[in-house]
Design a protein that fits this description.
alpha/beta; Nucleotidyltransferase, domain 5; 6-stranded mixed sheet; 5-stranded mixed sheet; 5 helices; 29% strand
Length: 221
């Protein structure tokens, strides 16, 4: 399996290339520079691996929620590559990517992913690790004021993501349901790889013309 993953949904711009069990990646925390960086990152990874886009089996893309502009950039790049070489796309939730990264880094199995949505709102989702070591959303990803999030029915959630700038409000809301959290964490394409491989295995991929960003605003209120 040869898979290219692209994410520009948050302040981080990242790209990862998975080839038969090995992953190489590029990442840079550079807000408003994603358009200039993402294609060179992909080109570098492909060149270093000695393969062409037409040798890829698929593309994974961070579909959102996240930055409106960033989501359009990533989806546009993924769509362009997939159209050009006729391969499918695995759309990955940005909140799922954060949860998967938190598990990889910390070993925590119950993750509350939170992204700063601006306008004093957050995107959030509750994720639990399944038997295949894949983070699965327990409801649906949502957008809300930090003090208005839905509460989980279990305890010991570990928080991650840029939305933890509202840590005091979230702690007051969650109380004993929250065990700890990490701040200044952003989506990374490398953490998308296990999620994407799982989607390809299950056949939950889409054609290039059917990929679209997930903004959430105006939804799940």
């Amino acid at each position: 399996m040869k898979l290219l993953a692209i994410d520009t949904s948050t302040e981080a711009c990242s790209c990862a290339l998975y080839i038969d069990g090995e992953t190489q990646f590029r990442s840079q925390l550079t807000p408003r520079q994603h358009t200039k960086l993402i294609l060179p990152m992909a080109d570098e990874l492909l060149a270093e691996a000695g393969i062409n886009p037409n040798q890829l089996d698929g593309v994974a893309v961070g579909k959102g929620p996240g930055s409106f502009t960033g989501l359009r950039i990533a989806c546009g790049v993924a769509q362009g590559i997939a159209f050009a070489v006729d391969i499918p796309i695995a759309p990955i939730s940005s909140l799922a990517t954060l949860a998967q990264a938190a598990y990889i880094e910390t070993g925590e199995k119950q993750i509350l992913s939170v992204i700063d949505a601006r306008m004093e709102e957050i995107y959030y989702g509750y994720y639990i690790l399944n038997s295949q070591e894949i983070m699965q959303c327990q409801t649906v990803d949502k957008v809300a004021k930090p003090n208005s999030i839905d509460l989980p029915i279990t305890e010991k959630w570990y928080g991650t993501g840029s939305g933890w700038i509202y840590a005091e409000i979230l702690q007051n809301k969650l109380k004993t349901l929250l065990q700890n959290y990490q701040i200044d964490k952003y989506t990374q394409a490398s953490a998308m790889i296990p999620l994407a491989l799982n989607l390809f295995k299950q056949g939950q991929v889409v054609s290039a013309e059917n990929i679209s960003p997930v903004y959430l605003r105006g939804m799940n209120r």
